[in-house]
Design a protein that fits this description.
- There is one protein chain.
- By secondary structure, the chain is mainly alpha-helical.
- The chain folds into 3 domains: 181 residues, Transcription Elongation Factor S-II, Chain A, CATH 1.20.930; 62 residues, no CATH class; 254 residues, no CATH class.
- It contains 24 helices and 4 strands.
- Strands 1-2-4-3 form a 4-stranded antiparallel β-sheet.
- Helix 2 crosses helix 4, helix 4 packs across helix 11 and helix 5 runs antiparallel to helix 10.
- The radius of gyration is 26 Å and the shape is globular.
- The two termini are 32 Å apart.
- This is DNA primase large subunit.
- InterPro entries: DNA_primase_C, DNA_primase_lsu_euk, DNA_primase_lsu_euk/arc.
- One of its GO terms (biological process) is DNA replication initiation.
- GO terms for molecular function: 4 iron, 4 sulfur cluster binding; DNA binding; metal ion binding.
C-alpha cells in the first residue's frame, strides 16, 4: 500500500529488533510529527481498520471539561482498545517487536486519515483540531527524557540555552516562572517571541531582544504550535494532490467512506423522552439544537418546508420518539394549507418511506452533525443544514442574540465558527444556553467551571442533533426531579461526583461503531 522509504526501519522490524542507534530507530519515542509517509505495506482490510481505530481515539481526545484523572482514565481505555502505545523500556533506547508494531500503526493510521480528511476545508479543520488534541495529550504524558530526545531529532529552529547563559540569566528566568525550580537543571529554549503569544501574554516567559526563553515545563505550547503549523501545511499539500488519486479504484472509495463515517449512536431505538405525541413537539423545542429549532420555527411560520428540511427534521423527530402514526399527524397538521388528499398524495409516502414502511423498507437513521455539515448544502428558500456552518455571520449573531447569548460568549462562539470548528461552536452554544436555562447567572463564561456549572459542561463534543436533545432533556429532567445546584456542589466536595459518560447527570453516550451491540 505505502511505498518503501526506509530500508533500515524495515530490516529492523523483520529482524525482531536489530540494534540501531537512537537516531536510526524508526520510532524512538511514542511522539511523532509525521513528516514522512510510512514505509511499510498493509492490506486494504488493515487500511480501513487502522483508520476507524484512530477515529475512535481522536473522538476521545476531544472530550471536554474532564478532570485530569477522568481524562486519563478515558484516554487509557481508548488507547487500550484502539491504539495501544507502550512507553520506552526504562534505561534503554532499544525497542523491538510489539512497540514497533504499535508505533507503525499510529504512523500509518495518521496518514490514512490525512488522505481522507484533506478533501475540504471543513474536513481539514476537524482533523487538525483532533490531531492537535491527541498530540498534546501524548506529549504531556511522555517522560521528560523522551520529550527532549524527540525534540532533538526534529531539526527545530530553537536554540537550546547553554548552562552558562542560564547562570547569567538565572534571576530573571526564575522571576518569570510561577514555579520554584533549579534554573540550571531546567531545559530552556530560546525562540522568537511570536511563536508563544499565549505565554507572552500571561507573562510566563522571560523576554530579551525579541527572544522568549521557554522552559520545558511550558514547552508544550511551543511544540503544539509547531505540530499544528506543520500538519496544516501538509493537509493543504495533500488536498491539492488528491485529484491525482481519483482514478485509483482501490483507495478512493475507502477514503471517501472513511471521512463520512459517524461512529456514534444511530438514535433509532432509544427515545429518551419515550414515545411522544404530535402535540408534544412544540413543548420539546426548548431542548432542540439550533438547526432543528430553526427548522421547527420555519415550518410553523411557512406551514411548509422543502424536502431537505423534511428529511433532516423528520428523522430527528423520529429519533426523539415520534412514531410513524404520530409523524403523519404532526406533518399533516403542520402543512395546514394542504387538504388531507393533497397531503396523502404528495407527502405521506415519503414519511412512511423514512420509517422503513415503503420501498426498500430501509429504517433510516437521523442525520449526524457531520452529515448535515458536509452533505446537501441548503439553497435559496431552504432551511435545513447547520446554522454554524451555513448561516451568514450577521444571521448567526442575530440568532445568538435572540437566545440571549451575551457579547462575551457570542464572540467566543463566532471565533470558533470563523475557524470552522462548527461542532465545538454548537457544544459551546449548548453549555451557554443550558446554563441560562438552569438560572446559573454568569455561568460558563470563557469555559470556566465551578459549582453547579458542571451540570451543563458537555464532556463530549456534540456530534449529533439527537445527542444535543438527549443531554438537554436529561439535564432538565434530573434538575427538576432531584438535582438542584446545591446538591451537586455537596456531591462534588465529598468526592462522590458521577464519573464521565454517566447518563444520570447529562446524558453521556457510550460511542460504538454502527451495527455493533
Amino acid at each position: 500500500m505505502f511505498n518503501q522509504q526506509n530500508r533500515k526501519s524495515r530490516q529492523h522490524l523483520a529482524s525482531g529488533g536489530a540494534r540501531l542507534t537512537y537516531e536510526e530507530m524508526p520510532y524512538p519515542t511514542r511522539l511523532n510529527f509525521y513528516k514522512d509517509p510510512p514505509p511499510l505495506e498493509i492490506s486494504i482490510e488493515e487500511f480501513e481498520q487502522f483508520a476507524l481505530d484512530r477515529m475512535q481515539t481522536l473522538l476521545t481526545a476531544q472530550m471536554r471539561n474532564l478532570t485530569p484523572e477522568q481524562l486519563d482514565k478515558t484516554m487509557n481505555e481508548a488507547f487500550k482498545k484502539y491504539m495501544p502505545m507502550a512507553p520506552n523500556i526504562k534505561g534503554s533506547h532499544i525497542q523491538t517487536g510489539q512497540l514497533m508494531e504499535e508505533r507503525k500503526k499510529d504512523h500509518i493510521s495518521h496518514f490514512i486519515l490525512r488522505l481522507a480528511y484533506s478533501r475540504s476545508q471543513e474536513l481539514r479543520s476537524w482533523f487538525l483540531r483532533a490531531e492537535c488534541a491527541l498530540f498534546r495529550y501524548r506529549f504531556e504524558k511522555e517522560s521528560q527524557a523522551d520529550q527532549v530526545a524527540f525534540l532533538g531529532l526534529q531539526n527545530l529552529s530553537w536554540k537550546k540555552v547553554s548552562d552558562d547563559d542560564k547562570r547569567l540569566l538565572k534571576d530573571r528566568l526564575k522571576a518569570s516562572s510561577f514555579k520554584a525550580q533549579d534554573i540550571v537543571e531546567e531545559t530552556y529554549f530560546e525562540v522568537d517571541f511570536e511563536k508563544v503569544p499565549g505565554l507572552v501574554g500571561r507573562r510566563q516567559v522571560y523576554l530579551q531582544a525579541g527572544k522568549a526563553y521557554v522552559p520545558l515545563a511550558d514547552q508544550v505550547v511551543l511544540v503544539l504550535e509547531e505540530f499544528k503549523e506543520r500538519l496544516a501545511n501538509a493537509l493543504e499539500l495533500t488536498g491539492r494532490a488528491l485529484p491525482r488519486m481519483d482514478e485509483d479504484d482501490r483507495l478512493m472509495p475507502v477514503l471517501n467512506n472513511i471521512n463520512k463515517q459517524y461512529l456514534g449512536r444511530e438514535f433509532t431505538t432509544s427515545a429518551i423522552a419515550g414515545e411522544i405525541q404530535a402535540q408534544d413537539v412544540d413543548d420539546l423545542k426548548v431542548h432542540m439544537p439550533l438547526c432543528m429549532e430553526h427548522l421547527h420555527d420555519e415550518l410553523r411560520r411557512e406551514k411548509h418546508t422543502r424536502h431537505g428540511g423534511r428529511m433532516q427534521y423528520g428523522l430527528f423527530l423520529k429519533g426523539i420518539g415520534l412514531s410513524l402514526e404520530q409523524a403523519l399527524i404532526f406533518w399533516q397538521t403542520a402543512f395546514e394549507k394542504q387538504t388531507p388528499d393533497q397531503f396523502n398524495k404528495n407527502y405521506a409516502y415519503n414519511i412512511r418511506h423514512s420509517y422503513g414502511m415503503e420501498g426498500k423498507r430501509t429504517d433510516y437513521t437521523p442525520y449526524s452533525c457531520k452529515s448535515i455539515i458536509m452533505n446537501n448544502a441548503p439553497g435559496s428558500g431552504d432551511h435545513h443544514g447547520c446554522p454554524f456552518r451555513h448561516f451568514s455571520a450577521p444571521n448567526m449573531r442575530a440568532q445568538l442574540a435572540a437566545h440571549q447569548v451575551d457579547e462575551f460568549d457570542t464572540e467566543d462562539i463566532m471565533r470558533l465558527v470563523s475557524n470552522k470548528h462548527y461542532q465545538v461552536a454548537c457544544t459551546r452554544y449548548y453549555e451557554v444556553t443550558r446554563a441560562k436555562m438552569l438560572g446559573l447567572s454568569g455561568a460558563m463564561k470563557g469555559g470556566g467551571l465551578s459549582g453547579g456549572e458542571e451540570m451543563v459542561a458537555s464532556q463530549e463534543l456534540i456530534e449529533h442533533p439527537n445527542q444535543f436533545f438527549e443531554q438537554s432533556y436529561l439535564l432538565m429532567k434530573n434538575k427538576n426531579a432531584s438535582m438542584n445546584v446545591e446538591n451537586l456542589e455537596v456531591e462534588m466536595m465529598d468526592g462522590t461526583a458521577p464519573t464521565p459518560l454517566q447518563p444520570t447527570i447529562q446524558g453521556g453516550y457510550q460511542y460504538k461503531k454502527a451495527g455493533t451491540a
